[in-house]
Amino acid sequence: MTKHFFGDTAVLLGRSLTHVTRSVDTIITTAVTPIAMMLLFVYVFGGAINSGSGSYVNYLLPGILLITIASGIAYTAFRLFMDMKGGIFERFQSMPIARSSVLWAHVLTSLVANLISLVVVVLVALLMGFRSGAGALAWLAVAGILTLFTLALTWLAVIPGLTAKSVDGASAFSYPLIFLPFISSAFVPTDTMPGPVRAFAEHQPVTSIVNAIRDLFTQQPVGTDIWIALAWCLGILIVAYAFAMLTYRRKIS
């Protein structure tokens, strides 16, 4: 059964990746918005923002990477919605394939597409002056956190992709996720914020994830931030996966 699942997922993943490669503009579009934000904040607002660090692009990049992921998962919801409306799911159900492999193919496609977008954003940041003395292990840790965050948000995206009534509804859920880094330590230190805003910023998942990535890039002790970040990512992933699979079973039953 496990071999059947992996084989079916691999075939369906190939199908999804083929669709992505035929519309590379989706990956480019996903990266354009975060890059535009990075250019705007570094070259327009950066001189007026006191981040307490030498280079604002170094301070800013972790938050921009999370925004890149939040932008990218909207396409997962969109692709799922189109498959649902196009009758693709019903066609797959008539075939002797593992049912969950259909969702996993979309999720892994999202992971691949988002990782490509993240690499593009990092390359642009390097051109803008981003520098890090982090070693290979620190970069692997950053990649691990971003991968886990992508999986968590992608499974979250599966739910509106299966339940939305319109294309706009399928992708609109990502807007609050894109906005969330603005109320965190992604752009400015939280101690510059008013009391209630600061309390929210310091106790939402983006701040701990951003702080952990920033500390890894700057070779600072990560402290408890990395464990809080991992706990948030795993918690969101487990809950989102459970609800997504429950929604999927109801849809195909």
From TrEMBL:
Read off the Pfam families from this record: ABC2_membrane
A molecular function (GO) held by this record is: ABC-type transporter activity
* Identification of the protein by name: Transport permease protein
For the keyword Hydrolase, the answer is no
| Top-level taxon of the source organism | Bacteria
Gene Ontology, cellular component aspect: ATP-binding cassette (ABC) transporter complex
Q: Which UniProt keywords apply?
A: Antibiotic resistance, Cell membrane, Membrane, Transmembrane, Transmembrane helix, Transport
The principal location of this protein is membrane
Instruction: State the family named in the UniProt similarity comment for this chain.
Output: Belongs to the ABC-2 integral membrane protein family.
Q: How does it sit in the membrane?
A: Multi-pass membrane protein
One of the GO BP terms on file: response to antibiotic
Q: Where in the cell is it found?
A: Cell membrane; Membrane
